[in-house]
Design goal:
single chain; alpha+beta; Rossmann fold; Elongation Factor Tu (Ef-tu), domain 3; Alpha-Beta Plaits; six-stranded mixed sheet
Length: about 600
């Protein structure tokens, strides 16, 4: 039986999941009565937000020219944060459908995914989607694909994933134009692990693509990286429901279960081979995903602290079983107590992990502002990587602080170029290049510090361009600059969770802005609270939260003025003692206010 393995790749919201739904219906894999929107997105948060977070692998069968084809396809995420999921999916395929919205044209992530596919030697079928919409421009979109990506405009297939128009042509192109799996290069079995999920009852479910040999139920297998040996208890494929089979042959995609208890025992990109006759060398795997953003999670202050920390630990551990792409380690803060410092692929990834922890784990979380990793050049010639401003060593030992720099590719309408350039320059951007997509659209290339774009850069870009601007970024290295640690002191005590590393030229302005925001967020107490911003031992900004004052002299209706003075002095002493031992409650909104910058 001929086999075709392909991925569906596109920019976010260009119709990948809807196209996957139509392919399932067109191949009769799903009955009309069972069909629903975003069928492969099985997480509630995916369905609510209308985005794909985890790639989904499905096997369907299609009859073309009297021959039955086995089609294995993977629906991938479109957001830049889940670029790693796309790269893993493309490694397991020979072809890909590059979906482009005919009303929006080529977007930033379209270009990034196309280059990723070309680097993986994947055959592309350009697919122009949403041709049923009134504003559709399929011809112009096809010409744009040819101009930007070099794929012939006449090879583009026009379709509508919503109505099903053109799906038959697309299925025919998949069978005719995509290459079959390569022939085995050795008799031994080699299968690539491209994903895995954890099931409470069956353990780890491992997704594999077989490149050489075959896997059978009952085979004793070995993971070539870890050297661990397991016995396959179940083999199957998703059609899209789990279907048990006896064996997976060369070129096929499926899953196996082998009573593996934790995801730590399974490494994405590892090669599975048979223990009896192992392969001499593994398949080329994947690079480890690069964590770009770091933040800390602490249990909220309500309830018993010890019990809340244990609940948060359990929730993070369980979630890590199903999403190994984020890291976590225990952390302690004087202001917030015990918690965890976590690393994420991006801001959206962080947002989704936080929401899943609160939903699935049932815990209330205090989240600190996200930071990026830095490289610290020390006087002894060594380099110290840190991802928390609180870990910055004594400045007398520091030669330079290097920050991560990303290359940002912005696709936008021509009329907004001036505003976007101003935005990039305000964020310390360096202009690199400008290309014309068409008469009305441009590609701008900038180099920007990652710390300047992780929070609200994308929102401001969307606001400036009225929703028409898109961006994609990639890390290009670390660069030294005039950076310093801006420390925030509340009531004389440093709050590590509010510390940031920023440019010295912007430190005073940012410190004053942050203190004004903190002053609004922290409630007044019975004593005066000083808020200070400092670099090293130098205070560069200060705000004061006035004390709540009780009128203790209200009960004095007469007599000598010394009666009032005595009461006021007594109150003054009490306030002084309270200030020494009093604790300042800092709300969650105060930690997030550090993110809001004003250009």
């Amino acid at each position: 039986m001929p086999i075709r393995n392909f991925s569906i790749i596109a920019h976010i919201d260009h119709g990948k999941s809807t196209l996957a739904d139509r392919l399932l219906q067109a191949t009769n894999a799903v009955a009309d009565r069972d069909a629903r929107a975003q069928l492969l997105d099985d997480m509630d948060i995916e369905r609510e937000r209308g985005i794909t977070i985890k790639a989904s692998a499905v096997t369907v069968f299609h009859v073309h020219k009297g021959e039955t084809y086995q089609l294995n396809f993977i629906d991938t995420p479109g957001h830049v944060d889940f670029h790693y999921e796309v790269s893993r999916a493309l490694t397991a395929c020979e072809g890909a459908l590059l979906v482009v919205d005919s009303t929006q044209g080529v977007q930033a992530q379209t270009v990034a995914n196309a280059y990723l596919a070309v680097n993986n030697n994947v055959e592309l079928i350009p697919t122009v989607n949403k041709i049923d919409l009134p504003g559709a421009q399929p011809v112009e979109t096809a010409m744009e694909i040819e101009q930007v990506l070099g794929l012939p405009a006449e090879e583009c297939i026009n379709c509508s994933a919503k109505t099903g128009q053109g799906i038959d042509l697309l299925l025919a192109a998949i069978c005719d134009r995509l290459p079959p799996p390569r022939a085995p290069v050795m008799p031994q079995t080699r299968a690539l692990i491209f994903d895995s999920v954890y099931d409470d009852y069956r353990g780890v479910i491992v997704y594999v693509r077989v490149f050489d040999g075959q896997l059978k139920t009952g085979d004793r297998i070995r993971m070539m990286f870890s050297g661990r040996v397991w016995t396959i208890t179940e083999l199957g494929r998703y059609t899209p429901k789990p279907t048990k089979i006896d064996q997976l042959g060369t070129g096929e995609v499926g899953y196996f279960i082998a009573s593996i208890k934790t995801l730590v025992d399974v490494r994405i990109g590892d090669t599975v081979t048979r223990d009896v006759d192992p392969a001499p060398e593994p398949l080329p795997g994947y690079q480890e995903p690069l964590r770009m953003v770091f933040c800390e999670f602490y249990p909220s202050s309500s309830g018993e602290k010890g019990a809340e920390f244990e609940a948060l630990r359990e929730a993070i551990t369980r979630l890590h079983l199903n999403d190994a792409s984020f890291t976590y380690e225990p952390h302690h803060s004087e202001a917030l107590g015990f918690g965890f410092r976590c690393g994420f692929l991006g801001m959206l990834h962080m947002d989704i992990i936080q929401e899943r922890l609160e939903r699935e784990g049932g815990v209330d979380i205090v989240q600190t502002p996200p930071t990026v990793s830095y490289e610290i050049g020390l006087r002894d010639g060594t380099t110290l990587p840190i991802n928390n401003p609180a870990d910055l060593p004594d400045l007398s030992n520091v030669v330079e602080i290097r920050e991560p720099i990303v290359r940002v590719e912005i696709i936008c309408p021509t009329e907004f170029i001036g505003d976007i350039m101003r935005l990039c320059e305000n964020r310390r951007g360096v202009y690199k290049d400008q290309k014309y997509l068409s008469e009305t659209r441009n590609i701008l290339d900038y180099e920007l510090p990652l710390a300047e774009i992780i929070y609200d850069f994308y929102d401001r870009l969307k606001s400036i361009t009225r929703g028409y601007g898109t961006m994609d970024y990639e890390l290009i290295g670390y660069r030294a600059d005039r950076l310093a640690k801006l420390q925030i002191l509340v009531n004389g005590k440093p709050v590590d969770a509010l510390s940031v590393i920023c440019h010295r030229d912007k430190a005073e302005q940012r410190g004053r802005l942050l203190l004004v925001k903190l002053k609004k967020q922290i409630e007044r107490h019975q004593f005066e609270i000083p808020l200070q911003a400092a670099i090293g031992g130098k205070i560069i900004a200060r705000e004061t939260i006035k004390a709540v004052r009780k009128n203790v002299t209200a009960k004095c209706y007469g007599g000598d003025v010394t009666r009032k003075r005595k009461l006021l002095e007594k109150q003054k002493e009490g306030k002084k003692r309270m200030k020494m031992i009093g604790n300042v409650e800092i709300p969650q909104s105060a930690f997030m206010s550090v993110l809001e910058t004003e250009d």
